[in-house]
Amino acid sequence: MLRTVKQIKAHEILSTSAQPTIETVVTLDDGTSASASVPYGTSAGRHEAFTLADEDPKRYRGKGMLKAAANVNEIIAPRMMGADVTDQREVDGRLVALDPTPQRRELGGNSILSVSLACARAAALTKGIPLYRHIRECYGLEDRDYVLPKPMVVVIEGGQHADDSTDFQEYLVGVTKDRGGRENVRAAIETYLHLKPILKKNHYNTNVGTEGAYAPAGIKSNEAPLAYIEQAIKAAGYKPGDDLGIALDPAASEFFENGAYNLACEGKKLSSDEMIGYYEDLLGKYCIFSIEDGLGEDDWDAWPVMNRKMGSRIMVMGDDLTVTSVERLQKAIDINAINSILIKPNQVGTLSETVEAMELARRNDLKTIVSHRGGGETTDTFIIDLAVAAGAHFVKVGPSRGERVVKYNRLMWIADELDL
Ligand code: PGA
Ligand code: ZN
Questions:
Q1: 184 and 99 assigned to the same domain
Q2: Strand 33-37 and strand 244-249: pairing?
């Protein structure tokens, strides 16, 4: 079946941070039309695809997306007319050819990704199948059994995601014992709900950060949340370390300054080895099963040390380190820097490149974790279909607010559909 692009139209829309982002609508020759919107990060890695904003201080404090939309409407759209959306590799090949710069500096990763994802969604719609099935068909993944990704739910936020909280950016609760799609979501979200009275009892406010997780102002150490989260897991009726575990995303690039890890809320400056020692100490005390970006995005020498020391016990995960890039992932594999990788389509710019990174990880026995963005998210649920299609081990999403829960709701919907 051939289904071709007849029209592409991009718009500036608002993201959840109230700063604009971009949404693109693709219409096919048979009249089918579908849209996709793309998020952006607050603590975006230095090496990820470029999010093109207007930089016009008179509009949205410089963060308007008119240029990104114009790039779609004036440059990308004319060259995509007639492209067959049922062949996503062909669609993405055309997009990459329009801006072959490594970080999509010409057109913007946001412009390109919005078209890539909208084409995939239009194709699924015209084929009359769920998006996750269409993605499998595109990349020859149909023969694999479906395994539903387990949730990793952000429950406490600090770093760039909140004011006056921890140096570490995220504390998550992850499902370590599979109870099935719906019950997995329930277990992690119940822990979030039980954390609220525990924080209150300890005199912290329970206002939420950019991802809808608690951001306890004035907290004086990066360790304190771990005990509260373990209490919440128990209060919710689950066993820490058995049913549910804790994952950390320190987002260490954000506090790596002049060659040292600066833990401002504790008044400590640590070398790479000391930072690794700090994590080892935490592993001995709490049910941590994953540390993402425990080290800086260019601290390449230290990563293999951390993976050697902890990789058999926990997920040592790259995010800013690897930015969903096949090149950076291959380097990480070559030096044995990680055993798992966070996947964010907007770090790289097209669906095909995202799946390529996931497949490279899979071939090398690395776990894949598909993730939302902490900055400006949208109500788009594409990442959930992607995670299901490509067999991701986890999905990482915030616990509350519409743009986050819509993703868990999609996951539970698919769980029902696939009876998993
Ligand atoms: P982001 O951070 O705000 O850049 O999306 C989230 C993360 O580091 O995982
Ligand atoms: Zn991260």
A1: no
A2: unpaired
**pLDDT in the model for residue 162:** 83
Asked whether 370 lines ligand 1 (CB < 6 A), one says no
Structure tokens, 201: 């009892």
Q: Tokens representing 267? A: 């008044």
Q: Which of 63, 150, 344, 367 is catalytic?
A: 344
Q: What residue has token string 């995010």?
A: 319
| Cβ neighbours of residue 28 closer than 8 Å, sequence gap 6 or more | 3, 4, 5, 6, 85, 122, 126
Residue 296, domain CATH: 3.20.20.120
Instruction: Say how many Å lie between the CA of residue 32 and the centre of ligand 1.
Output: 34
42 lines ligand 1 (CB under 6 A): yes
The per-residue pLDDT for range 382-404, each reduced to its tens digit, is 999 999 999 999 999 999 999 99
Residues 323 and 408 in one domain: yes
Cβ pair 13, 3 in contact under 8 A: no
> Residue 211 catalytic?
yes
